[in-house]
Design a protein that fits this description.
There is one protein chain. The protein has 10 helices and 29 strands. It has about 500 residues and is of the alpha+beta class. It is globular, with a radius of gyration of 23 Å. It comes from Citrus clementina.
Length: about 500
């Protein structure tokens, strides 16, 4: 009987069973790299395509890449370019794909937790293991804690009407939107412009409320503009509602919409995989890497070389003509940053304070590659008012633009200084950053271990500290009550 239940090493398993374990989808690129170093079983080729793959782990990584949604949307030439950019290392290709996904979604930490950070103008929202916490200024009920709350000096749990598993959140100046695992969307905050998707505009929505108009239309992402909101469905369609002064809703007119309406032209161009809202404009990225923009053309944010408003989605031709496959975009107040499938970064719009990172303050009317970061494989881009952050696959963060009360993270620079070219945040070198988000005057990052660091202005407690007025360098945010909370009410 003892022999029947004897312990055995995974190395004793046949190669095809080990391969099935490696490609189960539960292992990260880092996990695979660690396994490859542990024994010859994982590091050897075992006669499986010896010329093409360096090891069994390398073969497994290539299979996981092929199954990844970002990689699957790339053309064969684009896939080859990414592999070459990673020096033929499939584990690095996989790390790039997973890092891009996590930086704009939920971060799976090494401690087994799930986190996502989102910064509004003067507040911060945090998802931790499906629960949502908020801190900072609760202007118009944006924090979701009720009419009696005007400010939260520490991260406080948001109660939803019923048990809710939140998977994504977006915050703007005066309103916020939440996506549940079920695909339902809740909103709260100022609804005077219909941006929360409810017809009731008489008073702010102080607690998260279900967007009834989207019942039966499951969503996977929301993005909050100044007075409007975008909703991305699981099917890849985009809905918008709210103010439409500049055509930012994408329906071909300037009529406001009290409830979410699908953007018909985008349904005809294929599945949309990401959306990003600026103050009065919007960007949509399709699965085949095309970027569409619409809304206010001021500051050249639409990327068409002119400042005309676009009332419906228009493809940015610079990327199309050059065969550039874009995977993510970030819409700032006055400029835009894009990330392509090979980890290259592009910026355009208003160059004031060096926000575009080209060493000057000149506006760029069309997307222009950020040459100083070409030797790095970027995985996230993040833009806000006059500043930009770029996260690379090694976990390092580069920042440039306006210091904004220390929100750029360089303690040796003045609070109103300009950084005209990308510069690494030395104060975060000891950590592997997985996600970054920046508000008007504050910035928060999540590390691969789930630790939170914030820097910049804390006058309204938007960093979750009740004693500090500001942090010129990254300061860890400890949230004791978060560990004690059992979930949303």
């Amino acid at each position: 009987m003892a022999d029947r239940y004897r312990l055995f090493s995974i190395e004793e398993l046949p190669s095809h069973l080990i391969f099935e374990i490696l490609t189960s989808g539960r292992l990260s690129a880092v996990d695979l790299a660690h396994l490859e170093l542990t024994s010859k079983t994982f590091g050897g080729s075992h006669g499986l395509y010896p010329q093409k793959f360096r090891s069994l782990v390398d073969l497994a990584a290539s299979q996981l890449c092929a199954l990844h949604s970002i990689y699957a949307g790339m053309s064969r030439n684009v896939q080859i370019e990414l592999l070459n950019r990673c020096n033929g290392n499939w584990k690095r290709v996989l790390r790039f794909l997973q890092s891009v996904e996590h930086s704009s979604d939920i971060v799976e930490t090494s401690a087994g937790n799930q986190k996502q950070i989102t910064t509004g103008r003067y507040h911060t929202l945090l998802i931790s293991n499906s629960s949502v916490f908020s801190c900072g200024s609760s202007l118009c009920g944006v924090l979701g804690h009720g009419p009696e709350t005007t400010q939260c000096v520490s991260f406080t749990s948001i109660n939803f009407p019923s048990a809710a598993h939140v998977v994504q959140v977006s915050a703007s100046e005066n309103h916020a939107a939440f996506v549940l695992q079920s695909g339902q969307v809740f909103t709260c905050g100022d609804n005077s412009s219909f941006c929360c998707g409810h017809r009731d505009t008489n008073r702010p929505i102080f607690r998260p409320r279900l967007v009834e108009a989207l019942k039966g239309v499951p969503c996977k992402q929301v993005t909050a503009g100044l007075n409007f909101t975008g909703f991305l469905t699981i099917r890849g369609h985009v809905y918008t509602c709210g103010s439409n002064t500049h055509g930012q809703l994408g329906h071909g007119d300037t009529l406001d919409r009290p409830t979410p309406k699908s953007i018909a032209p985008l349904e005809e161009v294929g599945s949309v995989v990401q959306i990003a809202a600026g103050p009065s404009y919007m960007l949509a990225v399709t699965g085949n890497g095309v970027v569409y923009s619409f809304g206010s053309g001021s500051n050249f944010c639409l990327g068409h070389g002119e400042q005309h408003d676009e009332l419906q989605p228009r493809a940015i031709q610079t990327f199309r003509r050059k065969g550039i496959h874009v995977v993510r975009v970030s819409a700032g107040d006055e400029h835009v940053v894009a990330l392509d499938s090979s980890g290259y970064v592009y910026t355009w719009g208003k160059g004031y304070c060096g926000a575009l990172g080209h060493g000057d303050e000149i506006d760029k009317t069309l997307p222009e590659p950020l040459s100083s970061l070409k030797s790095h494989l970027a995985v996230q881009v993040c833009a806000r008012k006059r500043k930009t952050f770029v996260l690379v696959d090694t976990g390092s963060v580069y920042g440039f633009g306006w210091m904004g009360f220390g929100s750029l993270g360089f303690p040796d620079r003045g609070v109103s200084d300009k950084v005209l070219r990308p510069r690494i945040l030395d104060s975060l070198r000891a950590h592997h950053v997985s996600q970054i988000s920046t508000g008007l005057y504050h910035t928060v990052v999540v590390t691969d271990r789930g630790r939170l660091f914030g820097f910049g202005d804390n006058e309204r407690a938007q960093l979750g500290h009740d004693t500090l007025r500001g942090c010129l360098e990254p300061t860890e945010i400890f949230i004791q009550e978060m560990e004690e909370d059992t979930g949303l009410a």
